[in-house]
TrEMBL record:
TM segment ranges: none
Keywords annotated in UniProt: Isomerase, Rotamase, Signal
SUPFAM superfamilies per record: FKBP-like
Cited PANTHER family: PEPTIDYL-PROLYL CIS-TRANS ISOMERASE HP_0175-RELATED, PEPTIDYLPROLYL ISOMERASE
UniProt name for this protein: Peptidylprolyl isomerase
Amino acid sequence: MKNLLLLVFLTTSCFAFAQKNEQKVLLTINDQPVYAEEFKRVFSKNFNLLQESQKDVSEYMNLFVDYKLKVLEAEEQGLDTLPSFMGEYNIYKKQLADKYMKDSEITENLLQEAYARKKQEINASHILINVARNASAKDTLKAYQKTIKARKEILSGKSFAEVAKNYSDDPSVKKNNGDLGWFTVFSMVYPFENAAYKTNVGEVSMPARSQFGYHIVKVNDKREAEGTVKVAHIMIENKEGNSDAKTQIFEIKEKLDSGNGFSEMARQYSDDKNTAVNGGVINTFSRGKLNSDAFEDVAFGLTEMDEVSEPFKTEYGWHIVKLLDKNIIKSFEDEKLDLSRRMKGDVRAQLIREDIIKNIKNIYTIKEDDAALAYFSKNVSNAILSSKWDKNDLKDIPQKNIIEIRGEGKTYEDFAKFITMAQRQMAEEDSKENLLNKWLGIFKENFMISYHKEYLAETNVEYAHVIEEYRNGLLLFELMEDNIWKAAKKDSVALQNYYKEHQQEFKKEKSFTLTMASTDTKKMAKQVRKWMKNDVSKETIEKDAKEMGHTVLFKSGDFQNKNDALPPKIKTTTGVSKVYENNGVFLVLDIENIEPEGIKTFEEARGEVVSKYQQQLEQRWIENIRAKNEVVINQEVLKSLEKEFE
């Protein structure tokens, strides 16, 4: 019901945007203006949802006025102050603000970039030169120069593997010579990913800095991504002395072909004990994740769900693979939600945050106390480096704001509490000063984002409209629930009286309790009729008909006389009927009971009675609300709207 109200009565913000001064007043309610622009927006947005009679401007005007009066009534009843209302409204407001704040050009660009990269896989090798995130300028430069030196050696003709062994601080280099295999978007840290995707095949990137240090990337190959697959497998290891591995896997395949279950066979025979316990199931993977091109080639080569491969050999042994699921890369719109989710735990989220902060600084005048860092550096001890600092150790804490926007802000005391919480999750900083500087920056940014989110409706017209739509729809639901719906359901005497006064409105058609048998030919239907008259069971009829090359379908229940599944004219006697033709099939009915047409009892009609009584209550209630409020419509503006929407 809430969603219905939101769809039918989408209103807009009443915030005092500057352009309102130029808008035409369509009507006033108790001398308060309602603008033509609001009506136009609502009417246009809901046009396709309206009944034909409501698509006339003057007719819709009645709905619009009733809606505005209902919202006013809800506010007068104090429904907008109820904890239940405020809780639901504030949750939605926060969620919507998050969305609108992140709906920026940089967010869209990052999503488009991630989608393009998801469609491409890269095979690359790399060299890592370690450098701490908080390293000194001297150490950072030293690491950079070492990275450049390694790159020059590669460009001069030395093999990448040789240079990687000599320079790379990645422990895996001893085994893989720096070769990372195939990967795609979100597989690597963002700076590394950028270097890989922006480097051509056969070339070596310039150094890229991540939290781990400097990377240089050689791109060996690129290919179109194939999405992901999920498979189960049975493996027989090529153990030394096990010359029968091939024979065993082909014997297992014969058993599978004979109908043995794949899961049971995997549990019984597979040498991959990690997956055997789960019926051979391997977690969903993309190309390059299993370190076996041969295995991946077969897995991605399967096209039909539950398709089972022929036995094949890899460096690990002999396998049989069954396809459980396959996910190709969908359209951008279909992938967008998942990409957004994955970006939250990525450096991209920080880029979006920086863009939001930049936008906030352009909107508001922000006052900051530059003395704050010096005060805390002086008065906070090195105990924070071991997460043991107590804010009660602070002396003479200033009673003022560290940061402030339009009179609202965060104090020195607030930052002290922030430090207390932050020290529980220590960052990798080598000094108290660096740590406090970082935390103060985060503290200020958090306040700016929180403030902007709270007052977003003042700077984002579209958000203001949507949040006001939701607010008023929620209010309207609470109003109708309290004043109409609950009242109607609880007043049993009024419902009984309404039923007595309007009994003729609650008619019931003739109905049948029956079992219906349907088949494709009249001849078969006649045979089914004979079986039914002889009380042959449905299961036997279905079985015998199938042996004769026909299908018989049964359906039992209560059917109204005008149900399309029934023939137009049915002989109104119980028992097995003659053969009827309807909707291109032949039917036989076994009628158990016939209910004649008549007036429904109160219990039978209760749902309809409640609905109609609610409509009556609402109409009277609206008349009372209209009577106690003064509504004045500007006929000249209304006529101009009628002309505009002709």
